[in-house]
Known about the structure:
- With 407 residues, this protein is α+β, with helices and mostly antiparallel strands.
- It folds into two domains: 36-295, Thrombin, subunit H (Beta Barrel); 297-392, Roll (Pdz3 Domain), CATH 2.30.42.
- Helices cover 20% and strands 30% of the residues.
- It is built from eight helices and 22 strands.
- It has helices at 13-27, 38-58, 78-84, 142-145, 279-292, 309-315, 333-337, 356-364; strands at residues 62-68, 115-117, 124-131, 137-141, 150-154, 160-162, 164-169, 174-178, 200-205, 213-224, 234-237, 249-251, 257-265, 274-278, 297-299, 302-306, 323-328, 344-348, 351-352, 371-378, 381-388, 390-392.
- The strands form four sheets. It has a seven-stranded antiparallel sheet. Strands 9-10-11-14-13-12 form a six-stranded antiparallel β-barrel. Strands 16, 17, 18, 19, 20 and 21 form a six-stranded antiparallel sheet that branches.
- Strand 7 and strand 8 (174-178) form a beta hairpin.
- The longest helix is centred in the first third of the chain and has 21 residues, at 38-58.
- Residues 1-13, 73-112 and 396-407 have low confidence and may be disordered.
Amino acid sequence: MDVLKFKSNKTGSGSCVMLVLSMLALLTAPASAFARDDNAVATLRQIGRIFAEISEKASPAVVVLTVDKPISRGQLGAEQWWKVGSGGRQPALPSELLDNYRPIRPDPPYPRPRPTRIQPLGLKSRSLGFIVSDDGHILTCNHIVDGVQKINAELADGRQFEAQVVGTDPETDIAVLKIDANNLPVLKLGDSDALEVGDWVVGIGNAMGVGRTFAAGLVTAKSIGLGLAALEDLVQTSINLQIGDGGGPLLDLDGNVVGINVATIGDGSGTGINFAIPAGMAKGIYEQLIKTGTIERGFLGIAYKDVDAVIAKALGLETTEGVIIADVIKDSAAEKAGIRKNDVLVEFNGKAIKSPGRLIIRVAALKPGTQAELVILREGQRQNLTVTLGKRQSMQSRTQDDVLDAP
Length: 407
């Protein structure tokens, strides 16, 4: 047995003796001193049961979507599928395509990983959706079904159906599908606006196409824009999403859907930096698509500026929240409501405007003709205005000059 040896000297011998005595005290301490905290263990077990219950109740409404989709060079996910597809073996692509679809890596040093939509590369790729009506309506991401030739939906009980596209909205990356079935299990769309950073969330996936997976994590940020779609207000989470998990539900602890998992940072093998389309946005899109198959969005008609610290001080504002009206489009809904240049828009329909992005999303979520209540600051005084929204023309990408809803 090796023995710890201490070098004795006038200044250090006392501390060495104390260390030895401390070690002897630990070795002779009663067993109860090392007893686990049973209350803490019981709490952990209870948390595990909560997660298991969410998974058990939600899983039957999660659908695996297999799509026939043409492959093109540069398709998102090509490198990920090459690296991890088929369990790390050769990718599941015809041999004549291999030379054309090997990943093209940049010369070192490599740039910071970019966010990518969660979708594998393949002639038949698998992703997810989830059932939101008992007669067969399914929510998923538009990029999963865009340009596909055929969509197969496999339910948790093994039944398979051919899914039809009811409607899509590329600007938010949301799609609604329909299968011919009834009395199906459904997931309820929850209140994504109530999410706070630090809240627990869970996701059901289909990682690598090997079967249902389950992951838990935290909300780590809100109101994120990645530039993958024209209208983004994403929820960032720490759950580990992988290839095959795109289109799946993000759930709160009540088992309600608070987001649609859409993108990840890294190579798609579970980085813990992932993003979801908020359920609040998805709900409005879903309701319009099942009624008309198309989307109409409200139009306010302003150009805006961010409120930074310098501007806030100059205007006597207490915070940097809100939007400064840089210009008002002639004959627009904003002009008719009495909004003027240099007004500061601080509330929209009773909710504070914390950023221009939030204002864009809230206006775009409403249909033309909807009346909205605004609160503005004009020369330091709060004023209430009512606006009847106009109709916004479709745009495929946000304009560089940040003109809200510009045609």
